[in-house]
Write a structure and sequence with these properties.
Elements lengths: L9 E3 L2 E3 L1 H8 L7 H12 L31 H8 L11 E2 H11 L2 E5 L2 E4 L10 E7 L2 E2 L4 E6 L4 E6 L6 H4 L5 H6 L2 E8 L4 H4 L2 H23 L3 E5 L4 H7 L7 E10 L1
Parallel strand pairs: 3-7
Antiparallel strand pairs: 1-2, 4-5, 6-8, 6-10, 8-9, 10-12, 11-12
Helix pairs in contact: 4-8
Bound molecules: flavin mononucleotide.
C-alpha cells in the first residue's frame, strides 16, 4: 500500500505556506544550506509504511562512560506511575465514570493558576499561549450524555457540539479493530489552533504546536495510568473526517493527536 504524505497548507498572516517554507521552518535552527535541507526532506519523504524493529542508537563504545541505574523508587506514587505507564489495548468494555474522566481532562487541559490577568495550564506551552483545542468523543462514560464535546477549560465546561457519534470510528482512526471501538469509553482529540499562536511565532508555531500537544498528551497518559484507565495514543487518523465531526471551520485549526480510552 502506498502512503502519501501530505502537509497542511498553512495560512499565516494571509501568506500561504508552501512545502519549501514548511521545510525551512522545520530545519530553522540547523545550519544546513537550503539545498541540503530539501535533499534531506526528499530522502525522508521517500520512506514510510515499512515496519521497523529496534535500531541501535549512536555508538560511542571506547569512550569513558558512567553507568546509571535504571531503577525508580518503588514506594512513591509518582515514580510508580512513570514506571507503569504503557499503551494498553486490552479494553474490557467496563464503564468509565465521569468523575474519573474529568480528572484526566483537568490534568491536561485544566488551568492551574492566574498571573497578571492570564490563566495558565497544567502543561507547559510555548509562550504560555496554549494553542491547543480539546475534544472528547463520548461513547461509554457513565454520567455524561453520549456525543462529541468541546473542552472549554476557561469556563470549565464541556460543550456538546455534536450529538451523533459516528458508527464507523474504525474508518476515521487508523485502528483496525471495530471491537476495540465498541469496548472503548471515548476518544480524546487534541487540535492545534494556529490562530492563537501564529501572530507571535509565525511558521515556528508549526513546531511548537507539536511540542505543546506532546506535553498535553503526556499528562493525559499519566493521569490515565494513575486512574487505572487504559489508553492508546493515536497519531494516525483521517484529519478531514475528524475536522468534519468536530465541526471545525477554522482554516488554522488542525487535529494532530488523539487517544482512545477504555477500561
Ligand atoms: C506520536 C504517537 C503516535 C501513535 N500512533 C499510534 C497509532 O496511530 N496507532 C496505534 O495503534 N498506536 C499508536 N501509538 C502508540 C504506540 O504504538 C505505542 O506508544 C508504542 O508501541 C510504545 O508502546 P508503549 O506506549 O506501551 O510504551 C502512537 C504513539 C505515539 C507516541
Amino acid at each position: 500500500m502506498e502512503i502519501i504524505i501530505s502537509y497542511p497548507i498553512l495560512w499565516v498572516k494571509n501568506k500561504k505556506m508552501n512545502e519549501k517554507e514548511f521545510i525551512k521552518n522545520f530545519f530553522q535552527s540547523s545550519n544546513l544550506t537550503p539545498v541540503r535541507q530539501e535533499e534531506i526532506f526528499a530522502r525522508i519523504a521517500q520512506f514510510g509504511a515499512k515496519s521497523k524493529e529496534h535500531t541501535p542508537k549512536r555508538d560511542f563504545l571506547g569512550l569513558a562512560m558512567q553507568k546509571f541505574n535504571n531503577i525508580l523508587p518503588k514506594f512513591d506514587g509518582f515514580w510508580k506511575i512513570i514506571e507503569k505507564r504503557k499503551t494498553d489495548r486490552n479494553f474490557k468494555g467496563v464503564f468509565l465514570k465521569f468523575s474519573v474522566l474529568e480528572k484526566i481532562i483537568v490534568s491536561s487541559f485544566g488551568k492551574n493558576r492566574k498571573e497578571m490577568g492570564n490563566f495558565y495550564h497544567r502543561t507547559p506551552s510555548a509562550g504560555g499561549l496554549f494553542g491547543l483545542q480539546g475534544y472528547f468523543i463520548n461513547q461509554n462514560v457513565q454520567g455524561l450524555k453520549k456525543g462529541i464535546y468541546y473542552i472549554d477549560e476557561e469556563k470549565e465546561v464541556l460543550f456538546l457540539i455534536n450529538e451523533e457519534v459516528p458508527l464507523n470510528l474504525g474508518k476515521i482512526f487508523f485502528y483496525n479493530d471495530e471491537d476495540l471501538f465498541k469496548k472503548s469509553s471515548g476518544i480524546f482529540i487534541i487540535s492545534t489552533d494556529m490562530s492563537l499562536t501564529a501572530d507571535k511565532y509565525g511558521v515556528r508555531s508549526v513546531r511548537f504546536a507539536l511540542l505543546d500537544a506532546g506535553h498535553c498528551m503526556q499528562n493525559i497518559c499519566l493521569a490515565s495510568e494513575k486512574l487505572n484507565v487504559k489508553i492508546i495514543p493515536i497519531g494516525g487518523f483521517d484529519e478531514e473526517k475528524v475536522k468534519k465531526i468536530l465541526k471545525i471551520n477554522n482554516e488554522l485549526e488542525f487535529p494532530i493527536y488523539s487517544a482512545i480510552l477504555g477500561k
